[in-house]
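Researcher: Quick test of sequence recovery. Tokens follow.
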């Protein structure tokens, strides 16, 4: 049971999954990616949504998010998980440190080009429209916002670690190391969505 969680929110392809996994390794913390938990339990998201519809996806996603926020120290949410009112209430609670990752359309375009496994994201125009609609919620819930555009992941991770140290987060007590100064080679996962 996690008494306090570090939670990554933000639009699709902002880097929530990658950053969350990386910082959890660094903090020696338990880690969950709610999209991964969803596909483990219900099959690939890009097949589920066309078949069952987005409302059913959101209903099941909420169950998974609620359990993950209870059980894991570091959690990467799917981009639209914050649309759920109960999830918004959960994230407003003090025991959750909420990190909003954002990126410019130019940076996102580079990341999503040629990728078709995000069912609600058909291109950069739909990404911009989705982000604009959700922005007030993302901004309201965020304790810290980090722009990941054209920045290596180690810099993003350091920004978050510095914030945790500055705010005396209990999560940082197992992180005794210096700042990271490079990216460790990472095998690109075929994002199972
Ligand atoms: N800072 C970054 N610089 C370059 N590419 C990145 C960066 N962060 C993420 N990516 C790439 O963008 C894609 C989406 O990252 P991911 O962590 O899955 O985002 P999210 O979980 O927010 O949708 C992946 O291909 C990932 O390797
Ligand atoms: O923004 C969204 O509505 C979604 C984002 C995806 O997660 P990522 O933000 O990790 O890509 C995934 O949960 C699903 O495809 C819906
Ligand atoms: Mg993700």
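Model:
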């Amino acid at each position: 049971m996690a008494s306090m969680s570090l939670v990554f929110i933000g639009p699709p392809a902002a880097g929530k999954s990658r950053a969350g996994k990386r910082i959890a390794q660094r903090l020696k913390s338990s880690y969950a990616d709610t999209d991964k938990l969803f596909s483990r339990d219900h099959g690939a998201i890009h097949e589920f949504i066309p078949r069952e519809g987005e409302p059913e996806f959101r209903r099941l996603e909420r169950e998974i998010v609620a359990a993950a926020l209870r059980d894991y120290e570091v959690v990467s949410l799917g981009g639209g998980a914050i649309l759920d009112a109960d999830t918004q209430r959960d994230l407003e609670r003090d025991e959750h440190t909420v990190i909003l990752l954002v990126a410019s359309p130019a940076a996102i375009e580079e990341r999503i080009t040629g990728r078709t496994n995000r069912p609600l994201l058909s291109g950069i125009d739909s990404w911009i429209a989705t982000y604009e609609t959700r922005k007030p919620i993302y901004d309201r819930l965020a304790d810290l916002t980090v722009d990941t555009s054209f920045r290596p992941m180690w810099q993003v991770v350091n920004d978050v670690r510095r914030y945790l140290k500055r705010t005396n987060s209990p999560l940082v007590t197992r992180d005794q190391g210096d700042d990271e100064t490079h990216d460790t080679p990472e095998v690109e996962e075929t994002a199972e969505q």
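The first helix runs from residue 16 to 27.
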